[in-house]
Amino acid sequence: MSLPADLAPEAAAAQLAGFAAASDPSLLLLFASPAGVLGPIASALMPILPPGCRVAGCSTAGELVPQGYSDRSVVAVAFPRAGFAVEMVRLELLGRSQVTRWMADIRSAADRLKVRGCGAMFGLVVADGLTRREDVLAATLDAALPGAPVIGGFAGNGLQFAGVEVLADGEVTTDTAVLCLLATDRPVEELVFAHFSSTGRRGVVTAADPAGHAIHEINAEPAAAEYARLAGLDPARLTPLEFARHPLLLRVGRRHHVRSISGVRADGGLQLLASIEVGTLLTLGRAEDLIEGFAKALAGLPRPPELVLGFDCILRRLALEQAGYEKEVARLHSRYNICGFNTYGELHDGMHVNQTFVGIAFLGAD
């Protein structure tokens, strides 16, 4: 369900509690914009939820609803207790990369879930999108949960790239990830789609701050100016839309992965949503096949889903809106019942990626 974000917290909580009561959920996910909305709602909601219901969520760069893209709304997704067993793990102090502790907590939660014998396990993650520890988090989850699908999104706050929030039960936090481990006998299918291709125009990162997600130089030139030259853009008019249309690609194995740009730095460098090392070869990409490929990916599911929980990059959304595909997006969201949020980055297969739709489809009966 979705509600307007400007609804009074007590009224929103009452509606959410009514929604939850219908399915007696083991887990309730909440996604909302702008930042600051979830805390008051969660405080009013927690005392009136069914006993044992866990709550996780975050602030967003926009919401995904069956009607298409949304803003300034609260989206709720409930997992019924009858079909989903849940364990929830808070991975705190992301900036300090407490990998040993995180792995111990994740494995303990997975062991508890296995003992309950409730079917196949998968993981859903919401995380602070500004801690710049996405790669460490992705690698930790992959190592701690071998063989289990784990997908997720990094929390946003519009295009401000500041002030994001993560919700763990009734508490709003930062510098935190929440891992929801679920076990179910219901069929689920992972879904990943990116809409870019390589132009063949390349640059080598010659100066960077990997921990700060910043590139200072490309090809020994100021990064923003060299990026603009490669893309054929005016360096004085680099905007989020241009970054969405002309992403930087990093090749890993046989696949290219986007390393999205969030802005131009005061020193003429580029601020990214992911870490980049000095010496990395980057290829300029181009956005294409914005809607047809996504439609084919959804149509390729083994059977129609009851719900697709999606994590969709805000820069992908910008590119789709600029291309005038809002109606097509709305039709696909409605047909496949897509809910979720727009992110500052996505997680799947042990990798942090950008400008990608990552989802998990809960399939209907045969």
Question: Can you walk through the features of this model?
Answer:
Helix 1 (9-21) crosses helix 2 (38-45) and helix 3 (99-116) runs parallel beside helix 4. It contains 9 helices and 26 strands. The strands form 4 sheets. Strands 14, 15, 16, 17, 18, 19, 20 and 21 form an 8-stranded antiparallel β-sheet that branches. A 6-stranded mixed β-sheet has the order 1-6-2-3-10-11, covered by helices on one side. Strand 14 and strand 15 form a beta hairpin. The chain is 25% helix and 41% strand. It has 2 domains: 2-193 and 292-363, no CATH class; 196-287, no CATH class. It has 366 residues and is α+β, with helices and mostly antiparallel strands. The mean pLDDT is 93. The protein is globular and about 60 Å long.
Query: What's the average pLDDT?
Result: 93
- Record field, number of beta strands: 26
Approximately what portion of the residues adopt beta-strand conformation? 35-45%
State the secondary-structure class: alpha+beta
Shape summary: globular
> What is the total domain count?
2
Low-confidence stretches: none
How widely separated are the two ends? 25 Å
Q: Helix count?
A: 9
Give the fraction of residues assigned to helices. Answer: 25-40%
**What does the radius of gyration come to?**
20 Å
- Biggest sheet character: 8 strands, antiparallel
